[in-house]
Amino acid sequence: MTVTPGAAADARPLSAGQEALWLAHQLDPDSSAYNVVLAVRLRGALRVDVLQEALTALAARHELLRSRFPGTDDGPVRRVDAPGTVRLDVRETPGADDAELFRLATLAGEEPFCLTAGAFRAVLLRRSTTDTLLVTVTHHIVSDATSQWLLMRDLFTEYGARTGEPATAPEPGRAATPTPAGWNEQVRAERDFVSSVRGARAAGYWREVCAGLRAAVLPTDRPRPPHRALRGATHEVGWHPDTARRLREAAAGRGLTPFVWLLGTFQAALHRSGCGDGFLIGCPATTRFTPDTRQAVGYYVNALPTAARFTPATTLLDTIGSAQDQLRRGLAHARYPVELLGGGPLFRISCTLVAADRLPVEGLYEGPVRLGGLRAELVDVPQQEGQLDLTVEILQDSRGFKAVLRYRTDLFDAATVERFGETWRCLLDVSLDAPDTAVSDVGLVAHDDLAFLLALGSGAA
After folding, report:
1. Alpha-carbon span 42 to 55, nearest angstrom
2. Distances (CA, A) of 424 to 104, 177, 387, 448
3. Are the beta carbons of 31 and 58 closer than 8 angstroms?
4. pLDDT of the residue at 2
5. What is the mean pLDDT of residues 378-391?
6. What whole-number distance in Å separates Cα of residue 49 and Cα of residue 155?
7. pLDDT category, 362, cuts 50, 70, 90?
8. What is an example of a Pfam family matching this protein (predicted)?
9. Which of 113, 234, 245, 377 is the most exposed place for a label (fewest CB within 10 A)?
10. Residue (of 104, 159, 160, 153) closest to 127 by Cα position
């Protein structure tokens, strides 16, 4: 997709989160760390001309997809171009096998954006007239995880309307999709809240949460460079279906959510891995507080600083309960953009939940679905690596849970992150068996390995 500057457009303000992302982009404009990607393999006779029409309609519906972000003497602004400037980039790939198609999709997602030109592109890798792969890429400044699925849903709703095929099977009782709110209204609401009495109270609450604590920092394999490179890699931690069942049962039995249970044990793993007795991590939370914003593509996220404190007597259940309380109270103040607090980075590690069964394209995460008369299947390409020291995305679907750990490769080796994942797995297992166990008492060495180490120490090995 190429975006050309449209006719003169009014300069529009950015949200606090967008301004922070714009600055991060200026520091490393060649990085793809903030690219949000959704790729789908399409089987069936795709009409490229109709897909372009649908893309134009999509851009008309969601103005951030046709926005660009130039800098001015007064800081960054947003300018909006005409919908027709958003063009589908068709790349012919005849003869490419599946591995090559995946590689090309990954590369399409990794291409950096020039924010002065735009923050959205759609790339169609066409192996044949009936076998294509569509890669939609946004910069985080115009999108979040939900947005990427919303734009895919709306794109194929538009496509299906033009070909006589529904995007997906309609959900029982679901009303027609309302028109999304304009982004200016979101920015205005944020600024009004920040300047209000409620905003002042929220700012005071976050300062109290952060008082005396620093961002959690894991011991690194290499010295921290003066400038972060925004380069990373991914490691996945999966849990057995039986563990997922026990997790749901244990959480429900105590009136908690599975995410809170996983978050508490994640904080315990950070403590046992060298983050200290008190620290902050970020928990991204949605700011889609109204029906129209729930249908809009945009950066509807505020990160909630979440504190963890440990003593020798702190149990796993104490940590889990504290995580529940932190999130409950934090969500009441989620409208306040914590970027405005200042004082350096509040966190270098984040943890969030993605509920696949609540995503706008129902069923796509778990298997093929019908989109506009085509068979569509998710292609899980790497993305968003290196934003922070460590970002953790807990994915929940009908099959259970898995965690996607994205980490900075200039700080950590793969083996270090894998070892952290095993520490987290161990603490979760113990929390399900004996939640009142003190975090400091959990043994982190497997029985066979412990016997070997003890034998080394005694000279018997």
Report:
1. 16
2. 34, 40, 21, 19
3. no
4. 42
5. 95
6. 13
7. confident
8. Condensation
9. 245
10. 104
In contact, 76 and 70? CB cutoff 8 Å = yes
pLDDT digits (tens, 9 = 90+) for 111-169: 999 999 999 999 999 999 999 999 999 999 999 989 999 999 999 999 999 999 876 54
User: Strand 374-379 and strand 35-43: pairing?
Assistant: antiparallel
Is the separation of the CB atoms in 1 and 121 below 8 Å? yes
Per-residue tokens: 218: 């894991």
Helix H, strand E, coil C: the string for 257-291 is CHHHHHHHHHHHHHHHHHHCCEEEEEEEEECCCCC
Mean pLDDT for 13-17 is 96
What is d(CA 228, CA 438) in angstroms, rounded to the nearest whole number? Answer: 36
58/456: higher pLDDT: 58
Closest CA to 202 of 340, 351, 348: 340
Closest to 243 measured CA to CA, from 34, 399, 13, 19: 399
- Among candidates 51, 68, 86, which has minimal Cα distance to 373? 51
**What was the pLDDT predicted at 167?**
62
- E strands, 318-417, are 349-355, 369-371, 374-379, 390-397, 400-408
Q: Which ranges of 64-119 does DSSP label H, i.e. alpha helix?
A: 98-110
Quote the tokens at residue 298. Answer: 């945009």
